[in-house]
Amino acid sequence: MEGVLHILFCFLFVHKIYAAEFNFLSDSQFLTDKDTLVSETGIFELGFFRPNSSENRYLGMWYRNISLRTVVWVANRDHPVPGASPLTLKIVNPGNLVLINNMSVIWSSNTTASENATAKLLDTGNLVITNILLGNYLWQSIDYPTDTLLPGMKLGKDYSRGIEWRLSSWKSNQDPVPGEFIYEANTQGYPQFGLKDRGVVKHRSGPWKIERFGGISFSGMILTFMINVVVKPGNFEHLKYP
Ligand SMILES: *[C@@H]1O[C@H](CO)[C@@H](O)[C@H](O)[C@H]1NC(C)=O
Ligand SMILES: *[C@@H]1O[C@H](CO)[C@@H](O)[C@H](O)[C@H]1NC(C)=O
Ligand SMILES: *[C@@H]1O[C@H](CO)[C@@H](O)[C@H](O)[C@H]1NC(C)=O
Ligand SMILES: *[C@@H]1O[C@H](CO)[C@@H](O)[C@H](O)[C@H]1NC(C)=O
Ligand SMILES: *[C@@H]1O[C@H](CO)[C@@H](O)[C@H](O)[C@H]1NC(C)=O
């Protein structure tokens, strides 16, 4: 790791005169300053930002075409980077995507591969790290939702992988650290979803029974999305489609 950080440290002194747009990151590329990773048809963009003129910087994903920056995912929401020293996003060791500031790792995907890996932003708003040799995903951002559920994303639990997909609000529009509100699955008894305010349930979907959640009525409403619930041993998920 030390060797890698040393090389990165040298990169930081390469003066950049323009912001580059990448379609993917391989072992030999890195993102810094105003560089961005752009999805195939340009729907989403990943880069560094300061929310609403905060002092802190974050690695985040937003809609490229919406001029009022609309952030849908944040990597280091718990680890803000104050100041102006360069942030660098890079794949190291191969297969581990890391965010580095001043030679220390701020955020890491914690993944490894035996050979080169690439990081790519999909048009669905999913940042994926692909094992080049096997073609599988080592990691994907939709397994770590922040406050936004995009079409195709899941909420619920995957017991086999120990993953819980839940939404948590930003603390304020200046600070993406998890705030008061959480929307998550409750799998005691018939599964259902609940909105909690500092741990206190404010809204429940009611248990899922056959075709709908007991406590939600869609009659009279125009359906702009569809709920798809999957309950099977070891897995409970809830998807919304536009
Ligand atoms: C973004 O906006 C431009 C200009 O309005 C438009 O031509 C382009 O198709 C849009 N791209 C996407 C991905 O929506
Ligand atoms: C943050 O955004 C809100 C509106 O979303 C605005 O009223 C406020 O002035 C902004 N604060 C700063 C420090 O930019
Ligand atoms: C970088 O880290 C070193 C050691 O922790 C510290 O002395 C220095 O002030 C930091 N520089 C910046 C620009 O944050
Ligand atoms: C990577 O591991 C660290 C230390 O265990 C943990 O704090 C962090 O949340 C992990 N990152 C991801 C993306 O899971
Ligand atoms: C891995 O990266 C090295 C250096 O960038 C390159 O020479 C090699 O062809 C890559 N291997 C694969 C399997 O892509």
Features:
242 residues, mainly beta, Agglutinin, subunit A, 2 domains, 6-stranded mixed beta sheet, 4-stranded antiparallel beta sheet, 1 helix, 24 strands, globular, binds 2-acetamido-2-deoxy-beta-D-glucopyranose, signal, carbohydrate binding, Bulb-type_lectin_dom, lectin
Would you kindly provide a written description of the structure presented here, covering whatever features stand out?
- By secondary structure, the chain is mostly beta strands.
- It folds into 2 domains: 17-143, Agglutinin, subunit A (Orthogonal Prism), CATH 2.90.10; 154-241, no CATH class.
- It has 1 helix and 24 strands.
- Strands 1, 4, 5, 6, 7 and 8 form a 6-stranded mixed beta sheet that branches. Strands 2-12-13-14 form a 4-stranded antiparallel beta sheet, with no helix packed on it. Strands 3-9-10-11 form a 4-stranded antiparallel beta sheet, covered by helices on one side.
- A hairpin with a 3-residue loop joins β9 and β10 (96-101).
- The longest helix has 10 residues, at 2-11.
- It is globular and about 55 Å long.
- The N and C termini lie far apart (43 Å).
- The mean pLDDT is 86.
- The site of one 2-acetamido-2-deoxy-beta-D-glucopyranose has 4 residues, from loops.
Write the layout of secondary structure elements.
Blueprint: H1 2-11, E1 21-22, E2 24-25, E3 30-32, E4 36-38, E5 44-49, E6 56-63, E7 71-74, E8 81-82, E9 87-92, E10 96-101, E11 104-108, E12 117-121, E13 127-131, E14 137-140, E15 154-158, E16 163-165, E17 167-172, E18 175-186, E19 192-197, E20 200-204, E21 208-209, E22 212-213, E23 226-232, E24 235-241
Parallel strand pairs: 1-4
Antiparallel strand pairs: 2-12, 3-9, 4-5, 5-6, 6-7, 6-8, 9-10, 10-11, 12-13, 13-14, 15-16, 15-24, 17-18, 18-19, 19-20, 21-22, 23-24
One 2-acetamido-2-deoxy-beta-D-glucopyranose binds next to loops.
